[in-house]
């Protein structure tokens, strides 16, 4: 995407999270009361007008993946806060709403959203129009992922290298080239030992993935990098991470799909991992 344009895939992801609030069974996999207000007036009507897309097999599968990755990251964050993490850094935050709906256990965190300036500007406008407040513990930090180092950007924001931080890097790596991914991972691993990251990656395409890849390419945000689980684990360990844990289909079943949900399918393969720095 261009640095001066709002990410269309980020907007699409926001709409999917909002659709989850309207269309799926309670208790929700991701309870996100800020999702609809952030989209603005008429969002619910637009979602209901697109039921065929949202409730088709591919629509449900994508929605399941989108809400599952956020739920898993937030569950890992809660564990990390108990362990002493002080900063929550969302890299490529898009229209993520955690800071707007943060639970009590998160209020002592410094929450930093890192993203392209245009996307951040649009998000802040939507927050204001929705009558929502930017919490005092939230910082917006602009970045050009292909041209700037994450460490330099965070240092300008006052994040010290001796602090334990938790990074969330969801739905981003597939849009970046390998050098930018490796540089970002190495930077994440330089923070205090015990810092953590939850990220997603895109495996080589098959089936429905080919259709989604074609769609995002039409939006001007094509996938450019793919990893097998073995390759991404090697990248994580080379960068300085250990305890690399994949959210497998079986783990997802046990944690989030037992009993099996009637509304959302259990993903056939999951591209989510969590790791800690050494």
Feature tags:
single chain; about 280 residues; Rossmann fold; 7-stranded mixed sheet; 11 helices
Please describe what this structure looks like.
The protein has 278 residues and is of the alpha/beta class. It has a single domain, classed as 3-Layer(aba) Sandwich (Rossmann fold), CATH 3.40.50.150. Helices cover 44% and strands 14% of the residues. The chain has eleven helices and seven strands. It has helices at 8-23, 35-39, 43-49, 51-55, 57-82, 117-129, 150-156, 178-188, 207-218, 229-239, 249-256; strands at residues 87-91, 110-115, 138-142, 165-169, 196-200, 241-246, 272-277. A seven-stranded mixed beta sheet has the order 3-2-1-4-5-7-6, sandwiched between helices. Strand 2 (110-115), helix 6 (117-129) and strand 3 (138-142) form a beta-alpha-beta unit. Helix 1 (8-23) crosses helix 5 (57-82) and helix 8 (178-188) crosses helix 10.
Q: Sketch the major β-sheet.
A: 7 strands, mixed
Q: What is the count of β-strands?
A: 7
> Looking at the chains present, what oligomeric state does this protein adopt?
single chain
- Domain count, please report it: 1
How does the overall form come out from the CA principal axes?
A: globular
Helix-strand pattern, N to C?
HHHHHEEHEHEHEHHEHE
CATH class: Alpha Beta
**Uncertain runs with pLDDT below 50, 5 residues or more?**
none
CATH-defined fold name:
Rossmann fold
Question: Percentage of helical residues?
Answer: 40-55%
| Number of discrete helical segments | 11
Averaging pLDDT over every residue, what do you get?
94
State the fourth-level CATH superfamily: Vaccinia Virus protein VP39
Radius of gyration: 18 Å
**Structural classification:** alpha/beta
Strand order of the largest sheet: 3-2-1-4-5-7-6
Strand content: 5-15%
CATH architecture: 3-Layer(aba) Sandwich
Q: Kindly report how far apart the N and C termini lie.
A: 33 Å
